[in-house]
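Supplementary Methods S3. Input chains for the assembly prediction are listed below.
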Amino acid sequence: MNLSNNQKQSFSRRSFLKTSALASGGMLISFNLFTACKSDIKPPVDISQLNFNDFNAFIKISDEGKVTIFSPNPEIGQGVKTSMPMLIAEELDVSWEDVYVEQGKLDTKNYTRQVAGGSQSVRFGWEPLRQTGATAKQMLINAAAAKWGVSASECTASQGVITNSQGEKLGYGDVVKEAALLEVPEEVKLKDPKDFTIIGKNISNVDIDKIITGKPLFGLDYKAEGMVYASVLRPPVFGQVLESFDDTETRAVGGVVDVVKFGNKIAVLAVNTWTAMKGKKALKAEWKQDSKPESTALHDAELFKILNGNKFDTRRKDGNVKKAFAEADKVLERVYESPFLPHNCMEPMNFYADVTSEKIHLVGPIQTPAGTAGRVANLLERDEKDVLLEMTRMGGGFGRRLYGDFVLEAAEISSLAKKPVKVVFSREDDMTAGTYRPAIKYKIAASIKDKKVTGYHLKEACINDNMYGLIPHFFPAGAVENYQVDTANYKSNITTGAWRAPYTNFLASAEQSFFDELAEVLEVDRVQLHLDLLENVKNNPEPNVEYSPERLQGVLKKVVDKSNWGKTEADVYQGLAVYYCHNTHVAEVADIVMENGNPVVKKVTCVVDCGIVVNPLGALNQIKGGIIDGIGHALYGELTFQDGKPQSNNFNTYQLIRMGQTPPEVDVHFIENNLAPTGLGEPTLPPIGGAVANAIYKATGKRLTKQPYLSNMDVEKVIG
Amino acid sequence: MATFSLEINKKTHTVDADADTPLLWVLRDQIDLVGTKFGCGVGMCGACTVHLDGTAMRSCLLPVSQAEGKQITTIEGLSEDGSHPVQEAWKEIDVPQCGYCQSGQIMTASAFLDQNSNPSNTEIRDAMHGNICRCASYNSIEKAVKVAAEKIR
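Predicted structure tokens for the full assembly:
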């Protein structure tokens, strides 16, 4: 990447693009997507809270014409390591078989910010990534034209080959050296979607061969010379601090190399993982309660106290709900409750750190590499440029790996022990030292006058933080004249954070259950109620409203058609939900049957409007995965606390959905259009809980209001 | 600490380990076969599944001392080049999302199909029920097992 002065003068007409010739031959073109993003693209939530970052592209073309695309964004199973390079390859116009994808390292110079989160990678990457490919293609054409002494307009390029009007041909590799020195074109033309050859095709996961043969890929698989393994003893109860400890028995375990106290934690370092875990079990520690130990009963009481009180922050207020409720013929009011949820990534938290006086080398699975590198530098009082962070593929993220607590642990232990260290969480560590989806309760009320919904008032009580920012502008904002969203929190010493589809993962279930009951009270058809409310939004457009009423109506109408809505066999019960979040519009119908008194989901029909589907194969995986994950957590997911201690710590005491509980069929349909694509990692999860609850109502006559539904089949119609 | 002689993927490995060390950690930390994954350590998720004399086994609960004298097969030894019918089916269906649990899923499926190459849907669901996929790729796993069964028959 070393550039001579004259080369430096010749590139970068646009601040976000740069090219360079490689010492080893070939061309690098890099591109800062964040600065290129249109200013009118609004992130879906307050992104600073999640330490989100932006996205970049980086491509390399060898003299042989082979293309390497560095995918700088972390891969957590959402498929960006495949889909984002597809966007570049499409416009670069190369055969996908000639593309090799590599995970980029954290590189704050060339990629200013790198992150996985919020279902935003493809949406933000759509224009700029294609422009990157198209720009490189134009430069290769320009180089070939110069070589032939013809005008670039006489040349075309396709599948890695440039052709002139005489029929002469040059491969990308033949002109890449010259192309790297050319000026970056100001404007490039992007393809018409009808000419796409890669976008819209089923492209396999780029790591598939390594995954199915067990090659080292994940953080836990990473090894380095001289590395020791660390198992960390953390406070067993939230609110406790370390008073004293005795490591005599630990140090007697053969293979234990060191015991390091840091903050309120003790790390046992050993030659292998098993020995480190054994050494940790032999530690004797005394803990002191520093703040109040909390329980689920306390959380329930505090959240109800909030809901029944009047101390709220108002997030959005239209009209006058008080007046609407006072003048109503009828008011429907329900409370919906959800528990804490751990993330339970299959790959337990882990990270490698080697802290020396020269550098801080970090390797592992992290959704927020840039932010985490900064926090490590701060913690160790070092310059951020000393940090070299490499990302591995991640065995799941779901939001847990936005938080770099385990990276800081690894760095601190390595710094104290003066050794390269791999911190490995046991499953028990992972489940009991989480950043959980907090418990939430909603009180939702609607006023009815002359058989119309005149008011809608949603109150949220949540542990720590949750709903804010743009969420109050989701449906039914804009659809009801008098509308208000209020939120309040109970501050807890239990660590909480973002969990797949933060803000809406339970909200959608609650609201979609509420609308189902509201339609019943109004004595109108459930589908028609939604269509009519959306019609109100179309008739009175309002700029803050985030969703498109037309697109929501589109998915709703199509799901009615595709699910055979209302026309199923006698013992099959259907529930419906329609929702917008993470910029994607989704409608879902769950078909359930009752077996031995328990609801069993047999089929889900899902219609998605995510614009152009970049990789249908990957899209289906995300959509189906989100739905089944959502069913599992709505039916079974729950982490309770007693005396400050999580009451589950492994899969023998915590139920995750398994194959036998999965609907055998998830039937997915897309709304076909040429709109810019939106993300799929999260949006199909939130509504499914509502669809299932509504189906259970049809089967049993019970309106379930408390998740997990299977443990709370008798909790219905809670009025706070 | 004792010395154990292990037959893994048709090769003999000699390792020094405490007799209670689970085979999982010997494979991962000492023999560098990291395809076998750590998920729960209590035999509840199936990420660590290997074959012991052809039978699917949770390596996180199997002390290394009990693995001696048995033919151990890990994901790395299931085929030379990823061409086992189950691996091919996984690729054809593009099963993985994050991919972490998939070697365990493949090992469970391959041992199962060795016993029953013409399974019913219920038999597939029962056989795979012990393997958790947190990304919930279950529909694809189910489909891939069916495709693999066709290839094997």
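The first strand of chain B starts at residue 2 and ends at 8. Helices of chain B lie at 23-30, 85-93, 102-115, 121-128, 138-152.
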